[in-house]
């Protein structure tokens, strides 16, 4: 059985190799460096495939003028439709009705469910998030909306407590420090990575919505950005190990640039990285589709449907 994990990292592009402005060039990221054979995840990095991973540069602009935005980029990833072109602009952060309609018509997750495949979102959301949705004060972003539209659950507090999902920061520390919980699980980055890999291996297709990268980029804080990346680095190392041991195929990609250039508080038009871990033949299958964001959904359909 093939299990595919989309490790979605919001707001990660390929920026200059300048440690003063690009956290990827500043941070010590030993697992990523190993996977990239000593290279840095930056604009200088060209496509390659090795024994450890496959890397391609992915266009997030989709041939539409302006800076890419979250709603159109994420909807494109989960449908295979060039959503920005369909609606005539990049749009976000939350989807409007036109974008929700496109997701509904072309929802990869619904197709997988109807074909009897198992699909799961691996982020847990706190009670106040759901209260905001019910009150109309908060809108679902594209990824949770796509799961909801497909009739699949959006994980909540109980899923976090029982180990069926992780927090957005992987470790769970944010639920303690930012949300005021004192008794929800806390993991080391390595434990979180192993848990994420185990959850993904139990599904045919799963998604982890890593929005903290975009949050850090908008904040323009180098130290906060480094902390996010150092946890991510350890998690990626565990996902690579699961690819070697269990055949997990992990696709790491984004919807637009941001974090890679802290001089820019907004999004960039830089290409986004697509890093693929797991069995080499499947890596090459996905990489062949990822010239732009429209390629992910067709690649997953080809492998799983």
Summarize the structure in words.
It is a single chain. The protein is an alpha/beta fold and 305 residues long. The chain has a single domain, classed as Alkaline Phosphatase, subunit A (3-Layer(aba) Sandwich), CATH 3.40.720. Helices cover 43% and strands 11% of the residues. It is built from 15 helices and seven strands. It has helices at 23-26, 30-35, 70-79, 83-87, 97-106, 108-114, 127-135, 142-149, 157-161, 173-177, 189-201, 212-219, 222-246, 280-287, 296-304, and strands at residues 4-9, 48-49, 54-58, 119-121, 205-210, 249-253, 272-277. A seven-stranded mixed beta sheet has the order 2-3-7-6-1-5-4, sandwiched between helices. Helix 3 (70-79) runs parallel beside helix 5. The longest helix has 25 residues, at 222-246. The radius of gyration is 18 Å and the shape is globular. It starts with a strand and ends with a helix. The model has no long low-confidence stretch (mean pLDDT 97).
Which CATH architecture? Answer: 3-Layer(aba) Sandwich
Q: What is the H/E string? A: EHHEEHHHHEHHHHHEHHEEHH
Helix content, binned percent: 40-55%
Model regions low in confidence, pLDDT < 50 over at least 5 residues: none
Report the β-strand fraction as a percent range.
5-15%
Q: What composes the largest sheet? A: 7 strands, mixed
The assigned structural class equals alpha/beta
The end-to-end span amounts to 12 Å
Average pLDDT works out at 97
Q: What value does the Rg take, in angstroms?
A: 18 Å
CATH topology: Alkaline Phosphatase, subunit A
């Amino acid at each position: 059985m093939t299990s595919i994990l989309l490790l979605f990292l919001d707001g990660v592009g390929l920026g200059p190799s300048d440690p003063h402005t690009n956290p990827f060039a500043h941070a010590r990221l030993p697992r990523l460096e190993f996977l990239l054979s000593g290279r840095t995840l930056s604009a200088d990095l060209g496509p390659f495939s090795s024994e450890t991973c496959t890397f391609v540069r992915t266009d997030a602009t989709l041939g539409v003028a302006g800076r890419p935005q979250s709603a159109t980029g994420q909807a494109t990833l989960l449908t295979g439709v060039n959503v920005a072109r369909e609606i005539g602009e990049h749009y976000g952060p939350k989807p409007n009705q036109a974008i929700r309609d496109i997701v509904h018509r072309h929802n990869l997750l619904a197709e997988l469910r109807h074909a009897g495949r198992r699909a799961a979102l691996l982020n847990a959301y706190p009670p106040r998030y759901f209260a905001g949705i019910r009150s109309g004060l908060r809108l679902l972003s594209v990824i949770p909306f796509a799961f909801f539209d497909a009739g699949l659950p959006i994980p909540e507090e109980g899923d976090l407590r029982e180990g069926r999902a992780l927090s957005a920061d992987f470790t769970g520390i944010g639920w303690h420090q930012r949300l005021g919980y004192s008794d929800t699980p806390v993991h080391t980055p390595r434990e979180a990575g192993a848990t994420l890999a185990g959850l993904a291996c139990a599904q045919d297709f799963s998604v982890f919505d890593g929005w903290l990268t975009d949050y850090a980029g908008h904040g323009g804080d180098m130290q906060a950005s480094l902390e996010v990346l150092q946890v991510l680095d350890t998690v990626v190392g565990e996902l690579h190990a699961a690819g070697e041991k269990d055949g997990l195929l992990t696709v790491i990609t984004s919807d637009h640039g941001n974090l890679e250039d802290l001089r820019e508080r907004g999004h960039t038009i830089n290409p986004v990285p697509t890093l693929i871990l797991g069995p080499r033949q499947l890596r090459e299958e996905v990489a062949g589709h990822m010239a732009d964001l429209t390629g992910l959904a067709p690649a997953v359909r080809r492998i799983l449907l």
